[in-house]
Amino acid sequence: MTRKRSLSDMEAMIRKTDFFLPEGISCDKVLRQEGTWSYIFKSESLGDIGHLVFLSYPGGTKCVYEAAGEPDDPMTAERRKVFTPIAEYISSKMELICGKSDGEIEPYNLQQEVQIVESKLMPCAKCGTITSLMVFAPEASTLGQLENYARRMFAKIKEQNVPTWIVGEETEILIDGQLAGEALVLKVWPKREPARIINSIGLNAMFDDFMDNHCKGR
C-alpha cells in the first residue's frame, strides 16, 4: 500500500525540486486560527504579495492562493504579477506529489489579517476641510514594510482622497543641536512617489503648508 503523503512531506519534497524563489522574494509560514498553515510570500519592494494554503480533500489536495490587497487597489495588480507565477508553479508541484482533488470546496477566506493602524487627518486651518492624511507605520523601516501599511489602509486612503503619506519608524537625530527625528516616508496618494528619508521638521512643515494654504486665494 502506498502511504498518502502529508503536507509536511510535500514541503520537504518541494524543497528538493529545482524551484527557487526569485531574488527579493521570501516566504513565511503562519498557523491560521482554524489550524491550517498559510504561506505568506513577501517582496522587498512590495511587501506581502500573496497568501497560499493547501487543503486536504479525498483524492488529493487543493491549492488556494490569492494576491494580497483590495481588488480596486492598483498595487494589487503589481503584487499579482509577481505572486501568481510562483503560486502556480508550487501548486502544480504539490498536486503532482499528492494528487489533485477535483471536488468542490467551500469559499475560503485567505486574508484574515486584522490590524489597527493609526493615522491622522490634517484639516484646513480656516474651513476645516481635510487637506492631507498621515499614516503612522511605527514598525516600518523598509519600502516593503511601508507598502504593507499602505495596503492595509487602502480603503481609508481612497475614501479620503487627499494627499497621503506613510511615515515609517522614527530615528532620533540632532538638527542644529536640537533633538528631532527622521523616518522613511512614502507618498501613496493620489500618485506614488519614491520613498525617501524626511526629518520631522520638514515633514511637519509640509503638512502645515497643506493646512495653512488650503483656502488662500479663494
Account of the protein in words:
This protein is an alpha+beta fold. It folds into 2 domains: 7-98, no CATH class; 119-213, no CATH class. It is 30% helix and 32% strand. It is built from 5 helices and 10 strands; from the N terminus they run αββββαββααββββα. Strands 5, 6, 7, 8, 9 and 10 form a 6-stranded mixed β-sheet that branches. It has a 4-stranded antiparallel β-sheet with strand order 1-2-3-4. Strand 2 (37-43) and strand 3 form a beta hairpin. Helix 1 packs across helix 2. The protein is elongated.
List keywords for this structure.
single chain, 218 residues, alpha+beta, 2 domains, 6-stranded mixed β-sheet, 4-stranded antiparallel β-sheet, 5 helices, 32% strand
What number is the mean pLDDT?
84
Question: Overall 3D geometry?
Answer: elongated
Count of β-strands:
10
Give, in order, the helices and strands: HEEEEHEEHHEEEEH
Helix content estimate: 25-40%
Largest beta-sheet characterization = 6 strands, mixed
Give the termini separation: 82 Å
Percentage of β-strand residues: 25-35%
Which structural class do you get from the secondary structure elements?
alpha+beta
Please give the domain count.
2
Low-confidence stretches: 1-7
Return Rg in Å. 22 Å
Tally of separate helices:
5
Write the layout of secondary structure elements.
Elements lengths: L6 H9 L9 E7 L5 E7 L3 E11 L2 E8 L6 H25 L20 E5 L6 E7 L6 H10 L1 H7 L3 E4 L3 E5 L2 E12 L6 E4 H14 L5
Parallel strand pairs: 6-7
Antiparallel strand pairs: 1-2, 2-3, 3-4, 5-6, 7-9, 8-9, 9-10
Helix pairs in contact: 1-2
